[in-house]
Write a structure and sequence with these properties.
mainly alpha, disordered N terminus
């Protein structure tokens, strides 16, 4: 959609509503006709809708950010996303102990609220011509250094995905930690993540992107490699 035609807001509302619908179907499936294959299929579609709404919101925020303010604006959006994950993970776990299917229904209700809040969003004044996929590929072909940022983003997201999925299994299977202990370790990962998003965004506005990405990437990689070596109190550190 062209950003001058209200496409961002329409896209966000549509994706959030679709997210709610798919979560509702997952709730009905889990409650009345449990089927792992159907649940996984719906989860895949729901994840696609969820990511579409988040990407649309970030694109809208990026258009509203003025010159030299992109880092702090994305920092605020990033902090909101991670705080939601940090609070939602233990909350969903506690609710799920009583009724696992109800977590899906609650998620659907939250998505409906998000879609309604989307009606209050406003498009930013159009400052650029929307780029197509072919334009992006053409740019990458003529400026291959840009590939570094895309590869960096892929690897970093892959590592975070392992933290929120495989790492949880690792803590239970290898270290035999109780759910409360695993929740604590996830909170220690997520809350600093959320708290530092905005300050780091402002830092990139002042110092540029390359140095924070390089230093942060190396530090993250070193700590990440230690997860499979340390145990006990050192995991908390």
């Amino acid at each position: 959609w062209d950003i001058s035609s209200g496409g961002y807001i329409v896209g966000f509302i549509f994706a959030a509503a679709l997210d709610a619908t798919l979560l509702g179907l997952m709730y009905a499936c889990a409650r009345w006709q449990p089927s792992l294959s159907l649940l996984l299929t719906l989860r895949f579609l729901e994840g696609a809708a969820h990511l579409t709404s988040l990407s649309t919101l970030m694109a809208l925020a990026g258009d509203w950010s003025g010159p030299g303010r992109g880092g702090r604006v994305m920092g605020v959006i990033g902090a909101a996303l991670i705080f939601g994950t940090a609070f939602g993970t233990p909350l969903g776990g506690r609710i799920g102990q009583e009724n696992p299917a109800f977590v899906l229904l609650l998620g659907a209700i939250i998505c409906v609220v998000a879609a309604m809040l989307g009606l209050r969003l406003h498009e930013a004044p159009s400052r650029r011509t929307p780029a197509s996929l072919s334009d992006t590929l053409f740019l990458l072909n003529h400026c291959p250094r840009l590939t570094t940022a895309y590869v960096f983003g892929f690897i970093e997201r892959l590592c975070v995905g392992v933290i929120v999925s495989t790492f949880i299994l690792y803590l239970g299977e290898v270290h035999h930690l109780e759910p409360a202990r695993k929740g604590l370790l996830m909170a220690l990962f997520l809350f600093p993540f959320a708290i530092l998003c905005y300050p780091m965004g402002r830092l990139t506005d002042r110092w540029g992107r390359a140095i924070p990405m390089g230093v942060g990437g190396i530090a993250f990689g070193l700590v990440y490699a230690l997860y499979g070596v340390v145990s006990g109190p050192w995991l908390v550190v």
